[in-house]
Amino acid sequence: MKKLVLVALIAALMTPMSAHAAQTKFVGGPLTNLDYQNATINITLTDVPTKGGLYIQQCVEAPAGTRSALCNKAAELWISTARGASFLPTAAIAFKPTGSYLVGTTTVDCLVSKCGVFMRFDHTVPADFAEDQFFPITFKAAVAGTTTLVADEVTATINGVAVTTRAPATLGYRQVATVAAVSKAGATLTYRSLAPACALNGLQITPLSGTGECAIAVTSVGNSTASPITVILPIRLTLGVQSLGGFALPETAKAFSKSALPSTTNFGEKVKYKATGACSVVKSILTMRRGKCEITASATGKKALYEGLSEKLVITGK
Question: Smallest Cα–Cα separation from 259: which of 296, 290, 285, 291?
Fold first, then answer.
């Protein structure tokens, strides 16, 4: 009896903490003696949370509670019901790891390093480690005399800020942004939006929603020195910032002068003005007297698109 208890205790200690907490059930194989260059692991997932999508990655095992930085971008899959995902959570998933891969200038050889299938929540819930699970995989040695092209590396920015699945971009409704990417192999790159919430015109991104998320896919077609790869650039969407469209009130104005104020915001909402002090506003026309004038400009917001406007303007009549 004591022996059975000891065995159970050892097994519990050897089980990753994330496996206890994870809701998603992973069934996949084969996980051992994989072909070094052309492996396929067939995966089925059940009890997938609706809180967010999942990434399935090939990574070197990291210490408990951390996420490895040595992952194979070419093999990464996005499991989600969102448009552009690699597979639906209910689909038969084909995962294709390789015996070696490149991360920056580091070559990972899974005959030397402990590699595995790493599953985690996607970019919609990046700080939630509840679904982190690691499943070790092993490879048989590569056949002598054969060569396999290493996957291309693509680095990308949105408005000059680096974006990866670990570091999504944040854009507001109608906040126009520019995507730029570089292929390490010098291969041709193509771009496409993976969700209707973000319109893509050339390299220009325009968010069409103020909530949720979208993503841009950047694909290297590969060349004689590198194989193709697609990277996903996730974008979190926030409410747009409503304004008077760049209008600036001067600090002073002549007493008894009149000037026009914006009648609509940058999103086309009607602006209401409330004036106190040495001025009045009627139908967006400001009339000054001598002294300090304070004006409150307000406009209604629109759910899931942009916030309401509340802005104070100060001017002095002389």
Answer: 285
Give residue-wise pLDDT tens across range 101-126: 888 778 889 998 999 999 999 988 88
User: Is position 247 within any domain?
Assistant: no
- Residues 15 and 125 both lie in one domain: yes
Instruction: Give the pairing type, strands 309-317 and 252-253.
Output: parallel
Q: Give me the count of residues in the chain.
A: 318
Residue 5, H or E segment = helix 2-14
Residue-wise over 203-228: b if at least 16 C-beta within 10 A, else e?
A: eebebebbebbbbbbbbbbbeeebbe
- Domain assignment present for 144: no
In a domain, 57, yes or no: yes
Same domain, 7 and 132: yes
C-alpha distances in Å from residue 283, one per residue of 22, 155, 251, 267, 271? 59, 51, 21, 19, 10
Distance CA 228, CA 223 (A): 8
Sign of the torsion angle spanned by Cα atoms 23, 24, 29, 35: negative
Q: What angle do CA 163, 83, 54 make, to 5 degrees?
A: 65
Do 165 and 198 lie in a common domain?
yes
CA distance linking residue 76 with residue 68, whole number of Å: 13
Tokens of 143: 């056949």
Q: Please write the tens of the pLDDT for every residue from 130-179.
A: 999 999 999 998 776 556 677 888 999 999 999 987 788 999 999 999 99
Going by DSSP bridges, is the β-strand pair 229-238/169-172 parallel, antiparallel, or unpaired?
A: parallel
Placement of tokens 């090939």 in the chain: 58
- Give the structural domain span for 305: 252-317
Residue 148 lies in a domain: no
Whether residues 289 and 200 share a domain: the answer is no
One domain, residues 302 and 208: no
On whether both 39 and 103 belong to a single domain, the answer is: yes
